[in-house]
Amino acid sequence: QVQLVESGGGLVQAGGSLRLSCAASGGTFSLYHMGWFRQAPGKEREFVGEIRRSTGSTDYADSVKGRFTISRDDAKNTLYLRMTLLKPEDTAVYYCAATSNYFVTRATMDYWGQGTQVTVSS
């Protein structure tokens, strides 16, 4: 079993920055593709970005491209999401997730963290 624990959420003003962390345990972190997702109240959970195992290649939702950066430290079993130029519409609970599958989507992830709240004030 893989356990994922997010941290780093909080309140920030529009235009500000925040870095989220996801600590993984119980599995071989380096073998999983990792993703960040978010869910605002009353809305569906949506894909934010991903980082592949081995290659470390990344991909992002259009809504965050150029503003958010995903990274991973396999030696520390930790995933990161650096968020800059934050907008009120970024307000959501942010979730870390892991999968051994090829596709990183809300329907294909094997493990999920509990989420961390990010609130961006205008």
Key structural traits:
about 120 residues; mainly beta; 7-stranded mixed β-sheet
- List SSEs in N-to-C order: EEEEEEEEEEE
Helix content: under 10%
Structural class of the secondary elements?
A: mainly beta
Alpha-carbon Rg, integer: 13 Å
> What assembly state would you assign to the polypeptide chains in this entry?
single chain
* Number of E-state strands: 11
Strand proportion, as a percent range, falls in: over 45%
Q: Which ranges are low-confidence, i.e. pLDDT below 50, for 5 or more consecutive residues?
A: none
Kindly report the average pLDDT value: 97
Number of helices, where a helix is a run of at least 4 consecutive DSSP H or I residues = 0
Largest sheet: 7 strands, mixed
How would you sum up the global shape?
globular
What does this structure look like?
The protein has 122 residues and is mainly beta. It is 0% helix and 50% strand. Strand 5 and strand 6 form a beta hairpin.
Topology, pairings included?
Layout (H helix, E strand, L loop, with lengths): L2 E5 L2 E4 L4 E8 L7 E7 L6 E6 L6 E3 L7 E6 L4 E6 L8 E8 L11 E2 L3 E6 L1
Parallel strand pairs: 2-11
Antiparallel strand pairs: 1-3, 3-8, 4-5, 4-9, 5-6, 7-8, 9-10, 9-11
Short description:
The protein has 122 residues and is mainly beta.
